[in-house]
Specification:
CATH topology: Cytochrome Bc1 Complex, Chain D, domain 2
Structural class: mainly alpha
Shape: globular
Oligomer: single chain
Strand content: 5-15%
Strand order of the largest sheet: 6-5-7
CATH superfamily: Cytochrome c-like domain
Largest sheet: 3 strands, mixed
CATH class: Mainly Alpha
């Protein structure tokens, strides 16, 4: 009888870490679901819509004629087709860099000055709010980034190489965290970002509200912080590297429904 008891306790102790881990992970999922009902991102959405319609800048104009890829003023469905190539700028642009272009051409803001502004401050904070509202207008729609233009295909291939490129003091790559199933950091599940359409939890969830620091994070900030965590140099705003990575992730997300704005740890 004693041996049987010892065997039972051994099995319980052996299984308890896995049970505790599963329970904690489930608890975080339940916590997120509870917060989603009152997601503070809604405040950023409202601000972004106001900024879109308000006349501002040296030209005292609104952004209502901004072309996000589907024609002047068309917002719905634009987010799930970005980044893409824009003929007027002859550049690959994501949502945030395109917003800055419109702020410059339509409203007269200095594009270079905005690009140098830290995330969460000044006009860059307005860019994040605008991106949150515009992205939310495509919530539930499925990603379908264009790849018909040669530059779009090149950026996808460059983004793929960057995703697997190892470097920095820790010899990390994006794939170190997001290239295999079953990985997590501090109970945060890490989605696999190489599958189609398996990365809806990843690429399709930003901009997102970060509960841990009470901030709204855009996709540009998310990618920049990933580089920081890899001990790479911090990329400049809307660098070719971050646009290429977004293109790779976005094309891989084809068919995944956008859940923006999400809420994250």
């Amino acid at each position: 009888m004693t041996k049987a008891r010892h065997l039972c306790w051994a099995l319980v102790l052996a299984c308890s870490p896995a049970l505790a881990q599963k329970s904690a992970s489930q608890g975080i999922d339940e916590y997120r679901a509870m917060l989603q009902d009152g997601n503070p991102a809604e405040l950023f959405e409202a601000r972004g819509e106001d900024l879109w319609k308000r006349k501002r800048g040296p030209k005292a104009a609104s952004l209502e004629q901004c072309d996000l890829g589907k024609g002047p003023g068309v917002v719905k469905g634009a987010f799930v087709e970005l980044p893409r190539f824009f003929a007027d700028t002859q550049r690959m642009q994501d949502l945030e860099s395109r917003i800055v272009t419109c702020m410059s051409t339509l409203q007269g803001f200095n594009e270079a000055e905005i690009s140098k502004t830290p995330f969460g401050r000044g006009e860059m904070a307005n860019v994040t709010a605008l991106a949150t509202w515009i992205a939310a207008e495509s919530k539930g729609m499925r990603f379908n980034l264009p790849q018909s233009q040669a530059t779009e295909r090149v950026f996808y291939e460059v983004g793929k190489r960057l995703f697997f490129q190892r470097g920095g003091t820790h010899d990390f790559s994006c794939a170190s965290c997001h290239g295999e199933e079953g990985k997590r950091i501090r109970l945060q599940d890490l989605p696999v970002l190489t599958k189609n359409p398996g990365d809806g939890v990843g690429f399709a969830a930003w901009p997102a509200y970060r509960v841990s620091n009470g901030q709204m994070w855009s996709m540009q900030l998310r990618l920049n912080d990933c580089y920081r965590q890899q001990r790479f140099p911090y990329p400049g705003f809307a660098s070719d590297a971050t646009i290429a990575l977004s293109t790779y992730l976005g094309v891989n997300a084809k068919g995944a429904a956008s859940v923006v704005p999400a809420i994250k740890r």
